């Protein structure tokens, strides 16, 4: 079987201008899988069923909807290729059911798991301190609301700044709710919650939440009482006849980086319950989640911290857990309140702020008088999808490992 497969392996190389073959990866098959041999002497292996499962031919993967057309029971787990053709830039596999799969080597390098060869591309966030007050990320309203390709490019730049810094100011916004909502919808659809969709509110306690009061609020993220917290939070101060009410921003990723190793581990391990119960008809108690959440590669991707909405801790914890959590949580609060972490800014009518609620904590000082704000939430998946689509359409960048544009 092995010798037969090896006889059916073809190598097709382009000839360079000087008459010799260009250096390229090569693919070889045996009974257990396919081995890719790279020019730098690295090797990686893929199971046959893995490659068939990831086939992107029209029989296996819908070319328009970008969805799988076959389930795992639709092919034999012991499947073996009938033929393997290795080109300079890709490998083509012919299967027994008379169809072929094509895999660019660039994709296989990123997908490699035995062993991993290349870490998936990740944008490193820019961690900032209070010094960011000297040059905060800022865009102009007329740029992002422009029609056509220029407006789309401006929205992409706007979202790139949010992805890098976790927030961005938008200047020149007409001080009315209609213009604010139109600007917000340039990003993505507004997320409906028990507060409604687009908000236009004063400190009248219309909802059972301290945000609708005039009290000071320490640095926190919103909607920790949702299983899926809001992705973006947008505020626009429409008017204020009084004093106080400065806005506070704290980079949660920076704050996490300042924690002691033991505090970091504790806040990454212990799930903290949250709740929202102040409005009639609303009782939100999601599954407990740690305050620091990581992806499967160990990168910090979300900070969930809201002391005001924190529920009853302890059930399921040990005595040591309780002690270590209080110490770690106190340490985080101390970092949040440090001069290095706190960025204060007095918002004015015409300046809207967009905050990545999965990263940047916000708060405010107490205020007096009449104060009118408007804003909204946008889902994390929604704004990231909008950015990914703009990157693909405007820059030809596709962030998917199994690139739909083969």
TrEMBL record:
One of the GO biological process terms: carnitine biosynthetic process
Family annotation (InterPro entries): AlphaKG_dependent_hydroxylases (IPR050411), GBBH-like_N (IPR010376), GBBH-like_N_sf (IPR038492), TauD-like_sf (IPR042098), TauD/TfdA-like (IPR003819), Trimethyllysine_dOase (IPR012776)
Enzyme Commission no: 1.14.11.8
CDD domains: CAS_like (cd00250)
Gamma-butyrobetaine hydroxylase-like N-terminal domain sequence ranges: 29-108
UniProt keyword DNA repair present: no
One Pfam family from the record: TauD
Pathway it works in: Amine and polyamine biosynthesis; carnitine biosynthesis
Catalytic activity: N(6),N(6),N(6)-trimethyl-L-lysine + 2-oxoglutarate + O2 = (3S)-3-hydroxy-N(6),N(6),N(6)-trimethyl-L-lysine + succinate + CO2
Cofactor(s) it depends on: Fe(2+); L-ascorbate
Residues of the TauD/TfdA-like domain: 156-377
First-level EC class: oxidoreductase
Signal peptide per UniProt: none
Keyword list, A-Z: Carnitine biosynthesis, Dioxygenase, Iron, Metal-binding, Oxidoreductase
A cellular-component GO term for this protein: mitochondrion
Single GO molecular function: iron ion binding
NCBIfam families membership: carnitine_TMLD
UniProt family annotation: Belongs to the gamma-BBH/TMLD family.
Physiological role: Converts trimethyllysine (TML) into hydroxytrimethyllysine (HTML).
Name recorded for this polypeptide: trimethyllysine dioxygenase
Annotated organism of origin: Papiliotrema laurentii
């Amino acid at each position: 079987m092995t010798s037969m497969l090896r006889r059916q392996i073809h190598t097709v190389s382009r000839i360079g201008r000087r008459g010799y073959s260009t250096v390229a990866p090569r693919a070889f098959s045996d009974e257990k899988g396919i081995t890719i041999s790279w020019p730098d002497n690295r090797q990686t292996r893929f199971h046959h069923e893995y490659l068939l499962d990831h086939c992107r031919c029209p029989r296996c993967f819908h070319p328009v909807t970008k969805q799988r057309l076959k389930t795992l029971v639709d092919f034999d787990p012991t499947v073996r290729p009938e033929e393997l053709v290795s080109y300079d830039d890709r490998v083509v596999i012919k299967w027994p059911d008379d169809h072929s799969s094509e895999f660019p080597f660039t994709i296989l390098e990123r997908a490699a798991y035995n062993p991993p060869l290349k870490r998936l591309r990740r944008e490193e966030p820019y961690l900032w301190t209070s010094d960011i007050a000297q040059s905060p990320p800022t865009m102009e309203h007329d740029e992002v609301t422009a029609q056509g390709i220029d407006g789309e490019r401006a929205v992409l730049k706007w979202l790139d700044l949010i992805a890098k810094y976790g927030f961005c100011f938008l200047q020149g916004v007409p001080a009315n709710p209609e213009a604010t909502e139109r600007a917000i919808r340039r990003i993505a659809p507004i997320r409906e919650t028990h507060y409604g969709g687009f908000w236009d509110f004063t400190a009248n306690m219309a909802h059972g939440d301290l945000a609708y009061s005039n009290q000071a609020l320490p640095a926190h993220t919103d909607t920790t009482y949702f299983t899926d917290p809001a992705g973006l939070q947008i505020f626009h101060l429409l008017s204020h006849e009084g004093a106080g009410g400065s806005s506070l921003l704290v980079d949660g990723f920076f704050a996490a980086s300042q924690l002691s190793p033991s505090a970091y581990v504790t806040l990454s391990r212990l799930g903290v319950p949250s709740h929202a119960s102040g409005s009639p008809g609303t009782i939100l108690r999601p599954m407990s989640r740690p305050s620091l959440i990581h992806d499967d590669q160990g990168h910090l991707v979300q900070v969930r911290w809201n002391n005001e909405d924190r529920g009853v801790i302890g059930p399921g914890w040990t005595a040591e857990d309780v002690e270590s959590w209080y110490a770690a949580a106190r340490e985080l609060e101390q970092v949040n309140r440090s001069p290095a972490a706190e960025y204060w800014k007095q918002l004015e009518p015409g300046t809207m702020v967009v905050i990545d609620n999965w990263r940047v904590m916000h708060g405010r000082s107490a205020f007096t008088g009449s104060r009118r704000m408007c804003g909204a939430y946008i889902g994390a998946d929604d704004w990231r999808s909008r950015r990914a689509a703009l990157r693909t359409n405007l820059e030809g960048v596709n962030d998917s490992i199994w690139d739909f544009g083969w």
